[in-house]
Amino acid sequence: MIFKKHTFCLLMLLISSFLFDELFAENIVIEATVVDSIYRRGISDVNVFIQGTSVGTITDQHGKFTLVISEQNANLKLVFSHIAYSVKIVPVSYFDHENIVLLREHSIRLREIEVQTKRPAYEYSQEITNIISAIPSEIFDSKGFADVADILIADQSAVIEERANGVKTVSIRGANQDEVLVLYNGIRLNGSFDNLFDLSLIDPSGLQQIDIIKGSNIATFGSLGSSAAINFVPKLKQDYLMKFYQRVGTYNSGDWGLNLSNEFHGLKFYAGIKEAAWEQRYIENQSSNENIEHQTSNVTLNLSYSFGKGTTNDRKHTVQSFYLQSERDYNNHRDMEKLGKFHKVQSIKYINDFEKYGKVNLNISDQILKESRLNSYLLWGI
């Protein structure tokens, strides 16, 4: 009987100890914000839960959440899941010193479809009826693309070909690359020899938007544009006065750029300069003396001035001037091959709005495109 009493007391003591630990155990309160890794904006409706359990919550409209877990679960992990972002898993201990969780946006692959609808009014809307895809600068400004070819990859109808020497060309809807007309503010850039243009010569930071005009019979731009036309619209105004950036990476890669933008008494001004360089290394060669070197340089200057009051809020006369200069050098030390490109285009455009009778566009442009190649051959003979 005494043994039973001792057993009963011991059992009650264990139960009391367990209940005491459960009632007075300390909880961990996690308060944090889930944001986009690029735009640094809060992401709403993100599922936040403890891995392997159904315990969790979701973020509010600002990306904030609060989750209370017991101290016993301090060694577990939290899962962050959203349909538009890659899943991220972090340990609970991460929030001891951090309250921000970065999620990276990812693309969802779907079968290819094409939707046609009423297109917005473009500058050449009265001259063509083709399908136009516009890529505004808001999409690519903050993503650090090296050149416009990296942007055009996102268009489902564009196929980019990049050669070993860094030259990039584009084809639209499976057509030949020499059937795509490349324009800079309406000025033809295609080479007179092969009707191609190297897209790596265009710096995206100096562009307002990219228009992809799809379909044949683009009579507006001449008979040379067979399958499509790509028009790079230069930037005239930005929401900042000055912007400087510099990036570095592996294999001696890096770039820096300086952009200036302002408006003074109707004169819009934009200027930009960019320098970039990177190396490529052959797998079988560890010596840096046999690397491939790339160097690029871009200078952009855009001016626009409007004057003369019309019947509408727009000015009656507009004078625009654009200047673009690009240089690119490719040096293959192992194969003793060199490629140098120099491209310059400058133009002056006058736009007059006669209101009742329409607009008049006068454009004078000058373009220089130089290319130099050096190939060394070693011949053996007996």
Q: How would you characterize the overall build of this protein?
A:
By secondary structure, this protein is mainly beta. 8% of the residues lie in helices and 48% in strands. The chain is built from 3 helices and 21 strands. The protein has helices at 2-24, 137-140, 148-152; strands at 27-36, 47-50, 56-58, 64-70, 77-82, 85-91, 100-103, 131-136, 158-162, 168-172, 180-184, 187-188, 207-214, 228-234, 242-249, 253-264, 267-280, 292-309, 315-332, 337-353, 359-375. The strands form 5 sheets. Strands 15-16-17-18-19-20-21 form a 7-stranded antiparallel beta sheet, with no helix packed on it. The protein has a 5-stranded mixed beta sheet with strand order 8-13-14-11-12. It has a 4-stranded antiparallel beta sheet with strand order 3-2-5-6, with no helix packed on it. It starts with a helix and ends in a 7-residue tail after the last strand. The model has no long low-confidence stretch (mean pLDDT 80).
Oligomer: single chain
Beta content comes to over 45%
The strand line-up of the biggest sheet is 15-16-17-18-19-20-21
**Biggest beta sheet attributes:** 7 strands, antiparallel
Give the averaged pLDDT, no decimals: 80
